[in-house]
Write a structure and sequence with these properties.
Length: about 120
């Protein structure tokens, strides 16, 4: 499955949570995360089919986090979504996905807000 969307600005809060999850994430995926996310706005809401679940107790947070493996611009990446978003209590609507990886996609590929992008969901 391929998702299509546009790069959008985030709120700058994700780097805190990514830093909190980095050790747990490394243990599950063997990837050292870049401390931030790439936010992508899809045309419609997307429900993850999680590859992993990171429990709040594992990273010292308040909410469990769903993690779905994907590929973005040829790089292994992961869509992350907190339980807070699943309950629709989040600052983001469900058509916004946050992608983490070991690189800064904006910097590496000179991505700007409104750039079109495709995300390949791994099975």
């Amino acid at each position: 499955m391929v998702l299509e969307g546009r790069v959008v600005a985030g709120m700058g809060k994700a780097k805190i949570f990514v830093k909190m999850m980095k050790e747990v994430f490394y243990a599950k995926t063997n990837i050292k995360l870049y401390p931030g996310t790439l936010n992508i706005e899809l045309n419609k809401p997307y429900n993850l089919n999680p590859t992993y679940m990171i429990k709040a107790i594992e990273y010292g947070g308040k909410y469990n986090v769903q993690v779905q493996e994907c590929t973005l611009l040829g790089h292994k990446a992961y869509i992350v979504r907190s339980e807070k978003n699943l309950k629709e209590e989040s600052d983001y609507k469900r058509n916004i996905i946050e992608v983490v990886s070991n690189i800064n996609f904006r910097q590496e590929y000179n991505l700007k807000n409104k750039d079109k992008i495709k995300i390949e969901i791994c099975k």
